[in-house]
Amino acid sequence: MSFMYKKEVERLQKKLNYMSQDGIFHILNGESMYEDFQKEAIFEEGTFFPFNEAMAVNEATKPLFDDQFKKVRAAGHGVTVQQYTEKVLPVIQFIREKKPETIVLWFGEDVFCQMNTLTILAFLEQEEYAGKVYLHHFDEEKFAVNTVEIQLGMYANLYESTLVQKKKSDLQCVAVMEEAVDLYFELQSEANRVTQFIKNYPHVDKNELTKKLLANFKEVGYGDTQYLKMIDEVRA
Hints:
Strand content: 5-15%
Radius of gyration: 18 Å
Number of helices: 11
Organism: Kurthia zopfii
Strand order of the largest sheet: 2-1-3-4-5
Helix content: 40-55%
Largest sheet: 5 strands, mixed
Distance between the termini: 37 Å
Protein name: AraC family transcriptional regulator
């Protein structure tokens, strides 16, 4: 996978002028992608960080990344505030301190990744970020990247309505996120495609069922932790 990343990034660097500019900062789709980028030395050290969150699950608050937010998110993940801060906040602290001229977000197109994307964009609006923002979104199996320049201005409101209030809004965003938001709300219902799938396999071992969920619901993008929790809730 790391070689696939390197080839696609090289293609984009030849195609997109901003990819070769100074002052560019990359936010990656979690720890695994970050480790692959490190392994291949795709970007200069200190210019890319992972966003190690799972905003598609558990409660959220605003303002983003204040003490209350960290407390609520840490509780949802079952970790201490200190553990949460050490795992999630480095990328946030970098943006606040360095204020990079250009930010590129590398995120998948599933619900899990797009809710993380939404959170970062809302945070940038909260910080009144004035630089350029580009979203590089992709199917995680193929890593064929689509690029779009993001116009900030409505993502803080979309974050609040979607992840804090859990209410649909009429706000329009980039197409890949709109699709993910629609599916996010479907998943908030007790009767959704994932819970129904779980109910169809009442006697299958949890770990085996998790493998089936990972294989069958790429558009959701949850990991083992999220699916195991859902299985427990459905079978309770």
